[in-house]
Amino acid sequence: MSLTTILLVGIVASIFVGFNIGGSSTGIAWGPSVGAGIISKTVAAGLMTFFVFLGGWTVGRNVMDTLAGDIITIPISLEAGVGVLFFIGLGILIANVFGVPVPTSMTTVGSIAGLGLATGTLNFETIGWIVAWWIVTPVIGFWVGGTIGRYLYPELNRRFEIVSSEGPLLTLDRDGAVPTPILGPNTTRQELAGTIVVLMIGCYMAFSAGASNVPNAVAPLVSSGALEANTAIAVATVAIGLGGFTIARRTMESVGTELSDIPLLAALIVMTVAATITTALSWIGIPISLVMAMVMTIVGLGWGRATRPIRARDALRGQADADIAPGALTAETETPVRTIDEDTNEPSETDTPTARNIGEEEPREVREAGNLFNPRAVIKYISMWIIGPTVSMGLSYAFFVAIPVVG
How far is Cα of residue 130 from the mean position of the Cα atoms in its chain? Predict the structure, then answer.
């Protein structure tokens, strides 16, 4: 088989990987915005494509360097790169069969590590550093989410609840010589500001997805020298964008429903935390799963919200006298404020909500709310974080031992 044919096979494999990345990542980044009716699926896919390219072109180059040159001590040959891409695609297929978002970065690292083990070129120092961050990242996500949920979320929800009114957000005023955009008939300034924030966070999430995922689709080909880095980033962006415009349309409707049914504000908090963690680690060249940070931030946010009635020390030790309802984020948590009527001198309740203090018992709606997350779903996610890279590494190792290639 000629090198040209092998390269074409490799590009097809890269497009397959990128296509599936686009299908899952677009739903994660833009599902809340589409679900809230803020933007259409087509606009979401277009924004996703642009910011994925931006993330891959900038921060993603650091991850590209790690995948292409640091995990094993010699360049990956073109033939080996195509094999690695095959096992990345296989890992994506396995994850899709189990119905969970694909831990693509972890699967990529596992496939390259399998090649390194088979050829005796694995850089154990780099792998140890990457795996250490895989262990630390869920802890960071849970801790940040728990802190926000316990100490900040109720007040944020009271002050910045994001609502969507009926009718268009903006309309055109055609009275002047030049039509100018104005607020829609039911739009408030708070709603406009909230919508802008939602869109900005979606773009930030897409940038983070590009930084972490663009290298996964093309790093093996870049390492071999078959594709130049800029060309490879363009190929990956097109593939991810294609997935965003096609198979992501369904995931944008259903994203998050298995793990949680949380308000838009909570979803935006989770997205911001997860995107920040992922972008920061990508900046230092760590291949990391965006889904990993998201899942543990969701769990931490719900845990922190539900444990407000008790001391944090008791909650961490499991010594809770109160029932810890996992559905704390899904309930209505507003508490009426009691005031004194100036005319009758009688106490009355206003519609202005207030957040309960730490240690105060939460409303019955919080204590009896439905599940914040499905424990089985969380276990399935965590299992895939372990099984995905392990299986891809094992299969890659067995393949390259049976069919030796020059690394």
Answer: 19
d(CA 375, CA 299): 10
- CB count within 10 Å of CB 391 equals 19
Main-chain phi, psi angles of 118, to 5 degrees: -65, -30
Q: What is the pTM of this model?
A: 0.81
Structure tokens at 37: 């009716």
What mean pLDDT, rounded, does the chain reach? 78
- What does the alpha-carbon distance between residue 3 and residue 6 come to, in Å, rounded to a whole number? 5
* 122 burial level (CB within 10 Å; 0-12, 13-18, 19+): buried
Which residue type sits at 130? I
- pLDDT, tens digit (0-9, with 9 covering 90-100), for 317-368: 554 443 333 344 444 444 444 444 445 545 454 444 455 554 444 444 343 3
Q: Which two tokens stand for residue 375?
A: 């424990």
Contact 25, 48 (CB under 8 A): yes
CA distances from 290 to 29, 139, 159, 207, 338 (A): 10, 14, 28, 11, 44
Rg over alpha carbons for the chain, rounded to the nearest Å, is: 24
Structure tokens at 280: 């920061």
DSSP-assigned states of every residue in 30-49? HHHHHHTTSS-HHHHHHHHH
Bridge partners (DSSP) listed for residue 353:
336
Among 9, 276, 319, which Cα is nearest to 148's? 276
- Higher model confidence: residue 331 or residue 43? 43
SS (H, E, C) 172-218: EECCCCCCEEEECCCCCHHHHHHHHHHHHHHHHHHHHHHHHHHHHHH
Distances (CA, A) of 43 to 30, 77, 89, 203, 335: 10, 39, 27, 12, 38
For 53-89, give the secondary structure using H, E and C. HHHHHCCHHHHHHHHHHHCECCCCCHHHHHHHHHHHH
